[in-house]
Amino acid sequence: xxxxxxxxxxxxxxxxxxxxxxxxxxxxxxxxxxxxxxxxxxxxxxxxxxxxxxxxxxxxxxxxxxxxxxxxxxxxxxxxxxxxxxxxxxxxxxxxxxxxxxxxxxxxxxxxxxxxxxxxxxxxxxxxxxxxxxxxxxxxxxxxxxxxxxxxxxxxxxxxxxxxxxxxxxxxxxxxxxxxxxxxxxxxxxxxxxxxxxxx
Length: 200
Prior knowledge:
Layout lengths: L11 H25 L5 H13 L3 H19 L5 H20 L6 H24 L6 H11 L4 H18 L6 H20 L4
Keywords: Membrane, Transmembrane, Transmembrane helix
InterPro entries: YczE/YyaS-like
Protein name: YitT family protein
């Protein structure tokens, strides 16, 4: 999903609403998927693994990793925007809030409902915050930075996500059927929302 494929809102208040609404929804999606227990996306497997070893909340690790990833932007000559800084701070805060508020599912059907809602939330959130046009998230910027260095978009994303998934799994992050469902479904779902709900 590229920024060019998602329509942007024009006015500043609308763009800010779209940005922060998207980041809140993204944090909710992370909370739902982690709480489902069925398996996380690659980055959140890593965040969860690091959090378990350091005794920190997942949201705190999301913020810390986001800040560290932004340091990698420097040699790639990537420039952050308001959306980048907001992504670093807000997604982790909203993820922790969601994990605090969401009950642990007591039945497999509820776990799958959490996973389905997580996918919808993250896909819609991507359309919202990228469409605000205020800068990519730190992890997205890392991917586009590798593209600028000569890697294809697909290869850059594959290398990053396989690396963080493997590291997260080794650290004890949850990998399962939800991880596979996330990998297969998040791209098509995001594209679907971009086409059906341009929000212009």
